[in-house]
Design a protein that fits this description.
- With 114 residues, this protein is mainly α.
- The protein contains 5 helices and no strands.
- It has one domain.
- 75% of the residues lie in helices and 0% in strands.
- Helix 1 packs parallel to helix 3, helix 1 runs antiparallel to helix 4 and helix 3 runs antiparallel to helix 4.
- It is elongated.
């Protein structure tokens, strides 16, 4: 079995767990030498930060009457939905042993040095 295939097989479950909120720390800390697990773990980290930022924005603008409907009520929920879809796709790709770079967030994750 080629080295890359072995790395993917060993990192699949860690890569999968990396998309579960703060559990992105598991692949980053436990499998930092595994390229596959680290790739998905970093994406999971950026995804988690994006979820937190979305909730903060939703909470802030939720108190302003007109903006509550437009930003908190529509935009933030759409972002939340898109982020959820990214997480599900990421988990599926991790379990199937594929590198999948999330749109926009994947570029940010690639710049993170661990």
């Amino acid at each position: 079995m080629p080295e890359e295939d072995k790395s993917i097989e060993e990192g699949k479950i860690f890569a999968f767990i990396g998309y579960w909120g703060l559990l992105f720390l598991v692949p980053i800390l436990a499998k930092k030498d595994n390229k596959f697990a680290l790739f998905h773990g970093k994406q999971g980290m950026v995804l988690c930060i994006a979820f937190i930022a979305d909730f903060i924005i939703m909470a802030i603008f939720g108190w302003i009457p007109v903006l509550a409907i437009i930003i908190s009520g529509i935009v933030c929920w759409l972002i939340f939905l898109v982020l959820g879809v990214f997480g599900i796709i990421g988990m599926i790709q991790a379990l199937t042993g594929k590198y999948w770079k999330m749109p926009i967030l994947g570029d940010i994750a690639e710049k993170i040095k661990i």
